[in-house]
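Handout, section 3.2

Students often ask what a structure token actually looks like in practice. Rather than define it abstractly, here is a full record for NADP-dependent oxidoreductase domain-containing protein. The first block is the sequence as you would receive it.
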Amino acid sequence: MEENKIHITRVKLGNQGLEVSRLGFGCAGLSGYYNASIPHEAGCSIIKEAFSKGITLFDTADIYGDDHDNEIMVGKALKQLPRDKIQLATKFGFFKSGEEIGVKGTPEYVRECCEASLKRLGVDYIDLYYQHRVDTSVPIEDTMGELKKLVEEGKIKYIGLSEASVDTIRRAHAVHPITAVQMEYSLWAREIEEDIIPLCREHGIGIVSYGPLGRGFFGGKAVVESLPAESLLAIHPRFTGENLEKNKLIYYRVSNQAAKLACTPPQLALAWLLHQGDDIIPIPGTTKVKNLDNNIGSLAVKLTEDNLKEICDAVPIDEVCGGREFMEVNVKGQKKGLREFNVSRLGFGCSGLSGYYNASIPHEAGCSIIKEAFSKGITLFDTADLYGDDHDNEIMVGKALKQLPRDKIQLATKFGFFKSEEEIGVKGTPEYVRECCEASLKRLDVDYIDLYYQHRVDTSVPIEDTMGELKKLVEEGKIKYIGLSEANVDTIRRAHAVHPITAVQMEYSLWVREIEEDIIPLCRELGIGIVSYCPLGRGFFGGKAITESLPAESLLAIHPRFIGENLEKNKLIYSRVSNQAAKLACTPPQLALAWLLHQGDDIIPIPGTTKVKNLDNNIGSLAVKLTEDNLKEICDAVPIDEVCGGREFSVFSKFEYRIANTPRK
């Protein structure tokens, strides 16, 4: 496809008066991410080259590059171009703290970021200023109020949002017109067609497509060319292992379509986007002039309705393998929950390494499975001071951490239970909170705990007292985030009023769903993440006591759902789930986990295992795509009123969340 004589037209982005080139330029890659960062001189050269060919919309953000390198580089390029001919877009919202990435949308932070970006870019105004991700702890009306003031002061011209939900966009637009939303949109990321695009068209809001080439996939990254050593794509779910091998088939089909239309695969992918409407502006980036010319060539590709259908058919969304976002995601930036806490989409529950459902395994073997999980992208590891004889589990996890990069791990542990000869009890006094935390830090041999839960609620101590001490531990740097486990709605609300709760850990699986009625709605209201323990029904959906016998040491032999007539009746449920899994070409545990994963990005299952084959099987759940019909059929296969036996061991049943409140202070 001939590129060098193509005229890049100009279009309205939204209905607020902003006019931009039909194709923009994403500058992020000039400062690394998918390849090595390039010198400022080279970056300025490619930006100027893009401008000379008719591109006038340039996109950056304050988070791109080390020490805001990308904005500084773009600012240098602007000094060599006519400012009034450029539409400059940048973003605020993310912040880095050590290895953590969080999101902030307070009015003070909005202004602080804008002033800093203006200074780094060396400009008097920003054309289009986006909130990069939504801060679920701050009303969007507050964030927009400050952005509106910046418009009135002339520091920004137009306001945008990125990765915002329909509700957030509507509410923001009511404060001040939104000019554009920036969303991932490409041949293999099309979910915004269902909700965001119709809303934007209703309100006259433009759509800027980031990742329009599927993070370089449709340009051949990892397919026709190897990934650079520095590329973060090496840990992206769609670019790794079996997922990549399966996705290559999609690339080959797109390549065949491109050959039929006498263009290149990236031109076809961009042309498909351009044909979705003049209100959609792709912003592909590159460090190479030949790729820039190739991208511009997409504007000359003409597609018929039949072509568009054939291209979509070549990329069936349900055949795309792997999530669209990096395994380590800021869930809060995507959906509500896990405030400013980056975790892998799937965690690892360590308790089973020290017994309970099977014999405990040696520390060397336990460390090996933890390291294996980490090597496959799992970074959230969950333990507790109760697990194992003499706190064995925390000690084992501590040994594993010594063999892993601590700053890449999200370590969760818990306090609250105590054992005496006669009973198991719960204690939440401030003194006990501190005593347990100090002991866990010592056993784990770490300086801090990422997420520290109260394991069960002490009904004799006001939650405000327990939280007061946990808040002090946060201030002292001994813990980073606070969680609750098996807490009821009232307790969570009162705790959250003392200090933000990052996550609640609750039993949640196909056969334990009561939290859908009260806990999940509350957590979404408050921006609290949900960690699902026993996501496989204590191994039931993995076949425990059905396709394999219970080990002699297993406590499941006394669990109400795994004994006698209850077990026999529950086997019918397993059989139905197994049939559903067969229909969807996955295993029963993959189906059970995939069902959970489809309940929302704010829900993080933490299955555990002692076997690598089970670990791999669990991770495979991330590639299982379920439709609304599938989800309904799976629920119908497990009617809650047909599940036989209580969900908890009798000794722990008195601590279940609905009967465990704390006294008022």
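Discussion prompt for tutorial groups: The chain has a mean pLDDT of 91. How would you have guessed this from the sequence alone?
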